[in-house]
Design brief:
Helix content is 43%, strand content 31%. It has a single domain, classed as Dynein light chain 2a, cytoplasmic (Beta-Lactamase, 2-Layer Sandwich). The longest helix has 25 residues.
């Protein structure tokens, strides 16, 4: 993946994580640990740890 595209994807994922955390907090459901997105072209999985964000593009 080209650097420009990876930076853009990283910005979107960071925003998605922030919004996801807001939803989980609003629902009072604990903490956000994992996000999974399925599209017609593939799947993206995001695992959250203390100081690490693992992104898997499948």
């Amino acid at each position: 993946m080209e650097i420009e595209i990876s930076e853009e994807v990283a910005a979107y994922v960071t925003s998605l994580i922030g919004k996801g955390k807001q939803v989980v907090e609003a629902l009072n459901e604990g903490s956000l640990n994992f996000i999974r997105l399925e599209t017609s072209k593939g799947e993206t999985m995001v695992a959250l740890e203390e100081n690490l964000i693992l992104i898997i593009l499948k």
